[in-house]
UniProtKB/TrEMBL annotation, chain A:
Signal peptide: none
Transmembrane segments: 20-40, 47-69, 109-135, 147-165, 171-191, 203-223, 259-283, 322-343, 355-382, 389-408, 414-443, 464-488
Organism: Bradyrhizobium cajani
Keywords of the record: Membrane, Transmembrane, Transmembrane helix
Boundaries of every DUF112 domain copy: 20-439
InterPro entries cross-referenced by the UniProt entry: DUF112_TM
Keyword Chaperone set for record: no
Protein name: Tripartite tricarboxylate transporter permease
Automatic annotation (TrEMBL), chain B:
The DUF1468 domain, residue ranges: 12-150
Annotated keywords: Membrane, Transmembrane, Transmembrane helix
Source organism of the structure: Bradyrhizobium cajani
Protein name: Tripartite tricarboxylate transporter TctB family protein
Top-level taxon in the UniProt lineage: Bacteria
Spans traversing the lipid bilayer: 7-25, 45-64, 84-117, 123-141
Keyword Phosphoprotein: no
Pfam families: TctB
Entry keyword Transmembrane: yes
Length: 512, 160
């Protein structure tokens, strides 16, 4: 009951005119980056981040999270209308959404997608409402060893369940750690890994890395493919919208299953992209009409969309309550929290009640605003798709350059951002996952500090990580997740020795 | 044309090189255990080792003809390479021009060059877009959010 009271209090913070205006602005900007190929939720949020430095933390997070909802919705618009996923997480939506739209049912496809997306988001928010403060209370008992164990679990689950080649994930993670270590060491105060460049003492800001990795990197991937956007009619027939949404309860099983997959993948940092692919794959296997998937099946749209939004929303739960971001976007937002002077983690629920519950309440309102706006703006954004890519590309480059520079007024950051762009392109091209890299840049330092503080407590004995039940469980779970890919591979070799090839390609598909 | 294998190898060498740099650099901070706890270089040293080992594994997988690589032998075709260069080279020139010309002039020149030289837009329209970009940057950053973007050596010489 406490939670409900807090939530009502949160609504009084979220439902004020300035915050509603921020939500509308955020959702519109979010739909814009979601619709534009080459920009996604992580880019949008990081591009907007420098502009929030002077705001109240609640207002800033409402703006950023609204943008996140908008981007999640916007990504599906282009997937369905043009077969261009504006977002990695809406790739799976193209499989059935585009065929349905091409058959002359774009309204049905869009309404189904938005309806199930809203359901997924709602489940995610409810989960956060009831679990967040509980998770935070448990986390209050945490000391440095437990913290390290949770970080370890987060990193391990990326390796075990992220879907990418495990060794590539490990390399991406380790590079992130090394980048996080650049600059002044918080424990000893000594300067590390500057390689003789004095300017690196301030460290490498994750904003610079994210702008390059996602902004420039994705632009390079996008420019390489030809854009044959062939627009289908994007007029909305309002009655069909309600009919399509009204038909959704018939697919209750698919909705609930996809929401569950989404929530699980959001809390363990699998992320929305992996969640939507996983949900689509499972739906195809279990649906009675599974063999018609790919030709415009309703469940083929419901499953990835619900999971995508459930994961996108619940990814904020570990960010708020434990200080571990569940997705790349959440990682960027967490960086924002630190810049605004808040410390993500369990203490947030004690020290910053207004902030937390204002944010949670804004999730309910923000999603309603997002659904309404996305339906209204479909024709507008369809027109936007006609702006040629050659015009949009230089504008994105300029936004990234200015964004990287304005973090700390450093030209070196701009050059590094461009370098990160090449790295992002190579990694995307070769299926190295980017989310663990960003995750490690953001929380690598904290994980290291937790480890070293634990070592100080135990005078150098690793036994402290097995000193009580909680920390032992977390560490064992982490090790199990780390070894999971190895175990699966061994099991597969043992069962049928001849077919490891097909599986790797399906793995590669998942992380596109 | 760049093969998938060459790209895999290049990336593995790149990550491995970074790993070696991290290892060498972390040795300066000291690794292991001292009276003040775990020394500052230990963690980077370990991550460096992991990067190098992982890169070697990826390198080996790139060299050996794995079945997955055979299914997509070509990573970047010549046309794609030209498109990539068409985006990246002007962007790099733009970044290189910033210290001299300043953010506003450089971005205006960049937009104009990218649109007008390959004849994507007519010269007057490209000029208008270039001016609009610089103006929008100035209004949003310098005026609304009071963030000073670099004005460049040229502007400094002219007394701005």
């Amino acid at each position: 009951m406490d939670n409900l009271q807090e939530l009502l209090h949160g609504f009084t913070i979220a439902v004020t005119v300035p915050h509603l205006v921020l939500m509308v602005v955020g959702v519109l900007l979010g739909i814009l980056v979601g619709v534009l190929p080459g920009l996604g939720a992580p880019n949008g949020v990081s591009l907007l981040l420098p502009l929030t430095f002077g705001m109240q933390p609640v207002s800033a997070i409402i703006l950023l999270s609204s943008m996140y909802w908008g981007a999640l919705f916007g990504g599906s618009v282009t997937s369905i209308l043009f077969n261009i996923p504006g977002e990695p997480s809406s790739v799976a939506t193209t499989f059935d959404g585009y065929p349905m739209a091409r058959d002359g049912r774009p309204t049905t496809a869009l309404a189904t997608a938005f309806g199930s997306a809203a359901f997924g988001a709602l489940v995610g928010v409810i989960l956060i409402t009831f679990l967040a403060s509980w998770v935070a209370q448990v986390a209050l008992a945490f000391g440095p060893p437990e913290y390290f164990a949770v970080y370890f679990l987060a990193f391990a689950s990326f390796v075990g369940m992220g879907g990418a080649a495990p060794i590539k994930t490990v390399v991406a993670l380790a590079i992130g750690f090394a980048i996080a270590a650049i600059g002044i060491d918080t424990v000893s105060g000594s300067v590390r890994l500057t390689m003789g460049v004095d300017e690196l003492v301030k460290g490498v800001s994750f904003v610079v890395a994210v702008m390059g990795l996602f902004g420039i990197g994705e632009l390079l991937v996008a420019v390489e493919e030809e854009f044959h956007a062939r627009a289908v009619s994007s007029k909305i027939d309002w009655r069909e919208v309600f009919r399509a949404v009204g038909r959704l309860p018939r697919h209750g099983v698919a909705l609930l299953r996809s929401a569950a997959i989404g929530c699980w993948m959001g809390i363990t940092p699998g992320g929305p992209t992996a969640a939507s692919f996983m949900s689509y794959g499972i739906a195809r296997r279990f649906s009675r009409r599974g063999r018609y998937f790919g030709t415009g099946e309703v469940e083929g749209i419901i499953s990835p969309e619900t999971a995508d939004h459930a994961a996108g929303t619940s990814a904020l739960l570990p960010m708020l309550s434990l200080g571990i971001p569940g997705s790349a976007t959440a990682a960027v937002m967490m960086g924002g929290l630190m810049i605004w002077g808040l410390n993500p983690g369990p203490m947030l629920f004690v020290d910053q009640k207004d902030f937390v519950w204002g944010l949670i309440a804004s999730m309910y309102v923000g999603n309603i605003v997002a659904v309404a706006l996305v339906l209204l703006t479909v024709p507008v954004f369809a027109a936007l798709m006609r702006i040629p890519f050659v015009v949009i590309a230089p504008l994105i480059v300029i936004i990234c350059v200015v964004g990287a520079y304005s973090v700390s007024n450093s030209y070196l950051d701009v050059v590094m951002m461009l370098g990160f762009g090449i790295v992002g392109y190579l990694f995307k091209k070769l299926f190295y996952p980017l989310a663990p890299l960003v995750l490690a840049i953001v929380i690598g330092d904290k994980a290291e500090d937790a480890f070293r503080q634990s070592m100080l407590m135990s005078k150098g004995s690793l036994g402290i990580f097995f000193a009580n039940k909680l920390v032992t469980c977390l560490i064992v779970a982490g090790i199990a997740l780390l070894l999971l890919p190895l175990a699966l591979q061994l099991a597969r070799l043992w069962r049928k020795p001849a077919s490891p090839a097909t599986d790797t390609t399906s793995q590669e598909k998942v992380i596109i | 044309m760049i093969s998938r294998r060459a790209l895999e190898l290049a990336t593995a060498v790149l990550t491995g090189g970074f790993g070696v740099a991290v290892i060498v650099s972390s040795l300066d901070n000291g690794i292991g255990w001292s009276s003040a706890g775990v020394e500052a270089g230990t963690f980077p040293f370990l991550t460096g080792i992991i990067i190098v080992l992982g890169s070697l594994y990826n390198l080996a997988r790139g060299v050996l003809p794995a079945p997955t690589l055979a299914s997509v032998p070509i990573a970047i075709t010549p046309i794609e390479l030209r498109r990539l260069a068409g985006l990246f080279v002007p962007a790099a020139l733009f970044v290189a021009a910033i210290p001299l010309a300043g953010m506003y002039v450089a971005s205006a020149l960049y937009v104009f060059a990218v649109l007008a030289i390959p004849k994507h837009q007519s010269v007057p329209r490209a000029l208008a877009m270039a001016a609009a970009t610089a103006l929008a940057l100035y209004v949003v950053f310098e005026r609304m959010f009071q963030v000073s973007l670099p004005h460049g050596a040229l502007a400094a010489a002219l007394g701005f």
